Amino acid sequence: MIMTDYRGFRLSKINNAEFSHLKYLLFWPIYLASFAFLERVWVNRNYHPVHCALDDMIPFCEYFLIPYVLWFVELLLMQLYTLLYDTEEFKRFLRFLIVSFMGTIAIYMIYPTCQEMRVTEFPHDNFLTAVVKALYSFDTDTNVCPSLHVIGAVAVMVSVWHAKGLDKAWIRIAAVIITVLISLSTVFLKQHSAMDVLMAMPVCLAAYYVAYRIPKK
User: Which residue in 51, 88, 90, 167 has its CB near the most CB atoms, within 10 A?
Assistant: First the structure.
């Protein structure tokens, strides 16, 4: 498998065919600025609590912090891998993220949501619960439906199944398992309702169609 050579990259060459895909990375500062605005500025409004009966049956489990944090790692690694070994898949992957993440931002603005299920008394006192407490203090309980964590995990899974060099069965199975664990982590850490996970699915389907089906047509 041939690695993409970026040693000759200069900003003046950003529009050249061999480097133009790097412009997709502009998505990240735009998305982060949009989300920060939504969380820190656009806050004087009524949020709609998201809850269902299944949420009351799911216990808090701090061990799910591990797959929850793994989400950030896999997003980074998948971008690095596709940047180096499959630039066409990198573009598809970023298109999926752009459509789904920015679409979710729009949903949050139109229909603001929150959840009221966070744990106030933790069953155990350990390192993981300490990190969860820090997570609660930093991450607000607003703008939750659909879950960006679930959407991002699905985006990575789909990209793994399409990327060059990742077509081994065990890699694809591992991607599915990790996606399931990350999705479960959102509800076991009481960061999201099960409804947030469910509502992420149509967003993922729309993003998949735009990123993977339309270009083929």
Answer: 90
Contacts of 133 (CB under 8 A, 6+ apart): 122
Burial (CB count within 10 angstroms: exposed 0-12, middle 13-18, buried 19+), residue 125 = exposed
User: Is the pLDDT confidence value at 86 over 70?
Assistant: yes
Contact by Cβ (8 Å): 165, 85: yes
- List own/partner pairs for 206-209 with CB under 8 A and 24 or more apart: 206/99, 206/100, 206/103, 207/95, 207/96, 207/97, 207/99, 207/100, 207/103, 207/151, 207/155, 208/96, 208/158
Whether a cis peptide bond, with omega within 30° of 0, leads into 67 is no
Residue type at position 217: K
Enumerate the β-bridge partners of residue 48. 113
Tokens of 23: 């412009």
Give just the sign of the alpha carbon dihedral 88, 93, 98, 103: positive
| Residues 41-47: contacts with CB under 8 Å, at least 24 apart | 42/109, 43/142, 45/112, 46/112, 47/112, 47/113, 47/114, 47/142
Q: What is the mean pLDDT of residues 182-198?
A: 97
| Residue 38 token pair | 């939504």
pLDDT band, very low/low/confident/very high, at 216 (cuts 50, 70, 90): low
| Selected residue with higher pLDDT from 7 and 166 | 166
